[in-house]
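Example 237.
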Amino acid sequence: MIKISRTGIEQYLKCKRCFILQYKHRVKVPMLPFTLNIAVDNLAKNEFDYFREKQEPHPLFLENNIDAVPFMHPSMDKWRDFRKGGISYANESDGYHFWGAIDDVWMKPNGELIISDVKATSRKEFNWDKTWSENDYPKAYKRQLEMYQWLFRKNGFTVSNKAYLVYYNGLKNEPMFNQALKFELHLVELQCNDEWVEDALIKAKDLMASDEFPGGSKNCDTCQYLKKRWNVNKVIE
Ligand code: SF4
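Predicted structure in complex with iron/sulfur cluster:
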């Protein structure tokens, strides 16, 4: 049984070489933790939990005509914690165990679940359509939601194709700081489709099980940097 995380599949889709380096050989590009983003995630979690406890809609739902409340479930804390394994699905016959840690789930009156994820940024003007058309990372956010939808469906839940990004935009041009970072809140609705997930999972698992060492991506800044560094080394030594 090969264990693969949601971030592993995202890495597989972005660059198969880095996927194998990281998830098979445990060689990882060092990265600092995004501590401010983690703080925003945690504050949002606390706020949504307040409404979960009361089984009332978050004001954001009312503003955006979303008929739902934060989902109350005994496994909610496990699903949200990667240290506890998040939400997972094991397929014995195909030989994989897939898992991911979610931010939040909301429930409609008919029992259908809505997957959401918290994001933080700091832009002068928040324009999702422009961000979507000019960058690759919003598509990764959509894939992230689709993988969570797939996991919840595999765990027996009915899940809406609609998913949401709860987006906090940090205001950086305030006249006074006063040790308080202010945010504007945006809700981004995404129409998702998880049909690709199983195929990607099986291909990633097969690659892990093989002896193949795939090539790197030509567009990757990190690899270009490492190649240039290597070339300089060869000249100097
Ligand atoms: S191209 Fe190189 S550094 Fe970039 S993701 Fe792939 S293996 Fe990693």
